[in-house]
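step 3/5: co-fold with N,N,N-trimethyl-histidine
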Amino acid sequence: MITDTVASRAVYELAQEVSAGLSKRGQKELPAKCFYDEVGSALFEAISHLPEYGLTRADEWIIRRHARSIEARVPKPLMVAELGCGSGRKTRWLLEALSRSQPLAYHPIEISASALAMCKRELDDIHSVRIVGHESEYLDGLLEVAARRPPQQHILVLFLGSTIGNFDRSMGAQFLQQVRRILRPGDALLLGADLEKPAPQLLCAYDDPLGVTAAFNLNVLARLNRELDADFHLDQFRHLVRYNQVERRIEMHLLSTVDQIVTIPGAHLTAMFHAGETIWTESSHKYNLPEVVQMVQRSGFRCDQQWVEEEWGFAESLSIAE
Ligand code: AVJ
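step 4/5: write tokens
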């Protein structure tokens, strides 16, 4: 029964997002979080193993290599909350380092039930770590965690993998401000950010020759067919990637190759597409180091330390709430 209610609320929320994004007069859009149903989470996991997509490996390398220095700099005693845990693979190294000196509560917060289940399975062998999963949006989940905080404990928020890059720069800073408001002075934030790199390298990473990223992108339409009873013809849409030099971000779109009308009964919506028209499905902003320092500062944190992987170009920044 409870699962039913959670599932139907999730479908309702999906319908709201879809109807808002696809009834836009100008550029149609779907928010990036719509990617992550069971298939989408599995496809992202596959992307993270592609030779062209070095982001996840670079992130994991930093965390693995510097887990002890990160551990040495965080406030204690502490509990860990992770925004979007995904498979949990890279979090292992941190949890192992952090639980060496104290038993640890780890609160992964995920909108994807299947990713949450995967993460619990992946990490459940670490001794002295207790996992408390939250299937919810980031800020709702973080509010739940903060409400359960024992007195004297600090919270370390993990926001890894450059998910911050899905927000516009100003929205990203705003989001971190909202995170900060839920925290107390002295709490910590570990933020992963993908660094600027040559456009050709990025275009390969987001338009891989195997077509996994294309499948990941198109799956959002397949999901609307499955969950909202829509009638998208997937062969009439094409994966499109561009690098926006001004905004310094990758943009992913789904391009309609013909004039067409799509019905989405579950969202009470009919959408018209002209040949060549696109649905904007994701932005992935790229950063430089001082910019990340500035962004966290504007959001009420002080950046304490940054660790960089130079080969791909990725940074983890540890900040303390002021
Ligand atoms: C999970 C948001 C960091 O932007 O690189 C990968 C998602 N999209 N390939 C990214 C993604 C296409 C990814 N993030």
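step 5/5: annotate
The CA atoms of residues 90 and 279 lie 32 Å apart.
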